[in-house]
Amino acid sequence: MRLSVQSAPFDIGSETARFAAVGAGAVVTFTGIVRDQAGTLAAMEIEHYPGMTEKAIGAIMDEAVARWSLIDALVIHRHGRLAPGEAIMMVATAAAHRAEAFAAAEFLMDYLKSRAPFWKKEIGAGGADWVAARDEDEAALRRW
Fold first, then answer.
1. Count H helices, E strands: the chain?
2. The CATH number of the domain where 10 resides is what?
3. What is the pTM of this model?
4. Under 8 Å CB-to-CB from 143, ≥6 apart: which residues?
5. pLDDT at res. 65
């Protein structure tokens, strides 16, 4: 199991190749990208408290590994200033069967989106605004 909270970009292909889990029947990967839905985003700034963030995400990963009998799990989440189109996070899960790998990956993504202690600020031509929790993200979390 590997967790990295980092400011540096990561290479999706290299991370996926390095993750290849021996004995797994399924590997699922997901990469989140900074998106500019309105066409006005200059950057997103992500803040966190070192130590606290890793502890919270680590607990979520431990739960996923136990709940779905994962062979391995990976979470990479960036912080700092990111431009639209940059990879912001990556989740990978490995399990004996695809259903467990997919479910665990979705679980991790939902928790990262809604509960991981990151604070996001969108910066555009009109100024900067903190990103608020969204109802659909909370709804996705309730299914677990």
1. 4, 8
2. 3.90.1170.40
3. 0.93
4. 110
5. 98
